[in-house]
Amino acid sequence: MAKNKSKAGKILDKAKALFGEKVEALSGKESKIRELISGVGNKLANLKNNPRIQKLIEPVSVFIRMIKAHFAGTHKLSGTTLGLLLLALVYFLSPFDLIPDFLGIFGFADDLSVILAVYAKVKDEIEQFLDWERTQI
Question: Which label site among 26, 57, 59, 87 has the fewest CB atoms less than 10 Å from its CB?
Fold first, then answer.
């Protein structure tokens, strides 16, 4: 089974190994999660003019909205999904990951890989959330 593990699964395993304990510590602390979301928002704002990271903006924005809805009590997420979304945001925010962000566009390649792997892993819940979100307007 380990031999057949997908590339996305391997990327997620590496991200969990690096930041799994941090995500577990965050899980129950809404104020710390708000700080994380604020930091991610600031990083996205600083990078918004970089055309090479445009693929990150939409999935990260969806993750943030899902987490906010979860903590507002309007759309609950499973513990696994919440953990994966937090993992993706922690990984994205960290300047020191598998490929450090200070290496320019190459530094965001692993961030994009982790975010897209999480997106693929929780795609059904994302689609449910987006359907729910459309009914809230």
Answer: 57
Task: Count Cβ atoms below 10 Å from residue 21 Cβ, excluding itself.
Answer: 10
Q: Would you say how long the chain is, in residues?
A: 137
Instruction: Tell me the pTM.
Output: 0.80
At position 85, the amino acid (one-letter code) is: L
Alpha-carbon distance of 80 to 124, in angstroms, equals: 13
CA terminus-to-terminus distance, the chain: 44
Cβ-count burial 49-83 (b if 16+ within 10 Å, e if not): eeeebeebeebbebbbebbebbbeeebebeeebbb
* Residue in the structure block whose two tokens are 């598998």: 98
42-52 per-position pLDDT tens digit: 888 877 777 76
pLDDT of residue 7: 67
Q: What pLDDT is stored for residue 94 in this prediction?
A: 79
